[in-house]
Specification:
Blueprint lengths: L8 H11 L3 H5 L2 E9 L4 E4 L1 H14 L5 E10 L2 E11 L15 E13 L2 E9 L1 H7 L12
Parallel strand pairs: 1-6
Antiparallel strand pairs: 1-2, 3-4, 4-5, 5-6
């Protein structure tokens, strides 16, 4: 796990805003035409308003205590990538996706790859394993042979 003082300032500020469940603060760090792609659920969100709605949905339809922890990061010019863990308690149901609030704790690894333009995030792609989340929540059984 990286300490906040090891991260670039913009990334530490971004993770802090996400962990405070402050969607307006997160999208303030993004360009007006930002594109955010969640590859696990297949969603693509263009513009600050759409991304703010996505982030609000995490609090409303997943967990009231979710947190991102950055494990590793790379920055090269305007490109960035960071490996993370998303953890929390599934204390919120998501009726639109047919998911109950199970009360189960979860920790799911993921990776974000993106671009910054003029100091703002302009593209952000999240790659993570939704099957691992659903298994930890008890919504689907673990695949045969999966570690316990």
């Amino acid at each position: 796990m990286m300490s906040k003082n090891q991260l670039p300032t913009w990334l530490a500020d971004y993770v802090d805003a996400v962990n405070k469940h402050a969607p307006a603060d997160v999208v303030a760090m993004m360009s007006e035409d930002v594109v955010v792609v969640d590859t696990a659920f297949g969603g693509s969100y263009t513009g600050r308003a759409a991304v703010e709605q996505l982030l609000s949905g995490m609090d409303a339809g997943l967990s009231s205590d979710y947190r991102f922890t950055v494990r590793k990061y790379l920055v090269s010019g305007s490109s960035y990538a960071f490996e993370w863990d998303l953890s929390g308690t599934n204390d919120r149901a998501n009726p639109a996706m047919g998911l109950p609030g199970t009360g189960q704790a979860f920790t799911v690894p993921g990776l974000t790859i993106g671009e910054r333009r003029d100091g703002l995030i302009s593209e952000n792609r999240d790659y993570w394993n939704v099957a691992a989340l659903l298994t930890q929540l008890g919504v689907v059984p673990a695949p045969a042979g999966a570690p316990k």
